[in-house]
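Second attempt. The first submission of Glutamine synthetase had a stray character pasted in from the spreadsheet, which I only caught after the job came back as garbage. Lesson logged: always re-copy from the clean sequence file. Corrected sequence (485 aa) follows.
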Amino acid sequence: MAEDKPVTLESLPELLKDDVAVKVAGVDVDGQLRGKLMAKKKFLSIAQDGFGFCSVVFGWDMHDQTYFRELGVSNKENGYRDLIAVPDLSSFRRIPWENNIPFFLVSFHDPDTSDTLYACPRSLLKRQVDKLKENGYGAMAGAEYEFYQFRAPQTHDGPERNSSGTATFLRENPVDALPSLTEGMFGYSITRTTHNQDYFYGIFDACEKFGCGIEGWHTESGPGVFEAALQFGEISAMADKASLFKLTVKSLGSKFGITPCFMAKPRQGLPGNSGHMHVSIVDNDGKNLFARDTEDKNAPYKDVAFLSDLGRHFLAGLIEGLPDIMPILAPNVNSYKRLVENFWAPVTVSWGLEHRAASIRLIAPPTASAKATRFEVRVPGADTNPHFVLAAILALGWRGVQKKLDVSIPPLGKGEDVGGEADKGQRLAKSLKEATDRFMRKESVAREVFGDEFVDHFGGTRQHEIRLWDEAVTDWEVRRYIETV
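This time the job returned cleanly.
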């Protein structure tokens, strides 16, 4: 767990006096943690200025396959050079399931300029947060994740004790043969968690010790599905905690022979895995700036009667920019199998007060307390990179504030669903290709808020995913056409 006292270069030797090694990791574009173990002496020598870290982690995909078109960070022309990885001392915690070894997150810097790397997820979010700080504001956030869980297959010696057994099983068996942790639809079950209680409570306890504590933890509707709401906090720290939560779940799962699955849509015909994000803006004293002191009787819509002018501009920015940042909110080919009608997943640009069918749910008085006023962006799935998602929400909202944008579409009324006749919102992209084309186009809002370097890099990584999908021959195709064409 992160220390109560700030960690400084001067306090490091005493802090690590009983340790022999330190673990460090940074976040890649797919949200995976990439890192290494290093001797304590080495870590202490690089803690201030950083160390060389191979840039290839930004030059290959989630399975270490080099992108078919080399991108700007890591390529032949620059010799696949090292980046500079700078430890964030404030991220210190110990890994409880690895004998409490010290752990630090790093951010990546360009070796030529020493500036933060445009493709580094932690740095992208920090740049958005810094824009608010310049105006005396801060941002708070919360994250919710749903995920399926599968049992490692049985062997003649009993169940596999690590999740690598799943990959072996899938090479020889159909995907739908992988057994779920529990069967049946049991959302919010009090009894279902006793079936695997050492695992269930183990995750809760490990997250608390690892500084990514869970606020609420329960079964969700679906075979072997859990949902976690992480403890609300400052937005940059929340993104870190979300990444570390996934690490915790996967690490604990491997010890129990369980494969947690954060895919957006692991099972056809069942609900997908969401990754909803909650965001609010605060002043230097922590006061919620989305809340309006008194009801606005002349509000353009009743839903925003208790939402401040700043909050309305922020909402307008989200509405206008949402279609242009879809590859961040739905980054994989599979993501768009979740974003379909009739599965409680938003498919259009839409918003509403306490409306869970909308893309953007406003949580505000009179249904919530003023200090809890916030936006819940419900488009992201559990397969997203939390640093990118929160950076995108902040960037779009802040653009709305700067431009003093007005809310351009009416709210969804109660009883109205997205995609229905009453929904006037724009249909969100139906595929990763459609989303990426819009994201990368010259006039994209994404280019305006993030810059060309980031859009070209991240867009290029998504084009890689699209190409792999286009070249894939799926089980569905073979089963459908093997005899009939």
